[in-house]
UniProtKB/TrEMBL annotation:
Main location: membrane
Membrane-spanning ranges: 26-44, 50-71, 103-126, 132-157, 164-192, 198-220
Keyword Metal-binding annotated: no
MF-aspect GO terms: heme transmembrane transporter activity
Described function: Required for the export of heme to the periplasm for the biogenesis of c-type cytochromes.
This protein's record includes keyword Transmembrane helix: yes
Bilayer disposition of the protein: Multi-pass membrane protein
Protein name in UniProt: Heme exporter protein B
A GO BP annotation: cytochrome c biosynthetic process
Amino acid sequence: MNELLRAFLALLQRDLLLAFRHRGELVNPLLFFMIVVTLFPLGVSPEEALLRKIAPGVIWIAALLAALFSLENMFRSDFDDGALEQIALSPHPLAVLVLAKVLAHWLVSGLPMLLMAPLLALFLALPTPAVYALEITLLVGTPLLSLIGAIGVALTVGLRRGGVLLTLLVLPLYIPVLIFATNAVAAAAAGMPVEGQLYFLGALLVLALTLAPLATAAALRISLS
């Protein structure tokens, strides 16, 4: 168990170091997230009532697209240099090592969006209760995006141009997260309870944490075979 934990932490640290060495790839999803959200008031209307109404959908769609934009980097470099085969041949369970890579991906893509979201929410005139709800939905929902996306990346990592196929595979699975997260933020903005939506997102996260690493590990073995 101690060896498995050391392997998990070593792989997590390695992926974080590689991400910070390629700062351009690290910053691109966050810049994309910021640009998409800030362009909406310019392209639609600066009226506060309208911005407050569309803000939950705008922020969550931008977060979803930014997460999708950064997915392909999760396994691509390891596949190209052969490190992914070494990880698959490790004596440790591949699903646990996959979870380390998913966590690293969330830390460099999902966590910055989580920290940036309150500022963008205020920019779109969201009330304070809705900002709190937005943060909770992002905290629960962005790991879900990484876990679900890892399955699609693992299936397409061996393809030369798998970006379009990855989008087609992953985007339909993102729709429930998008619906319940935006509904929770909109309900909070209207002063309505949001526990039901948050419980559903939490249940999806538990389910994804349980099954997504196993499915990703199986897909990686198929891609490497």
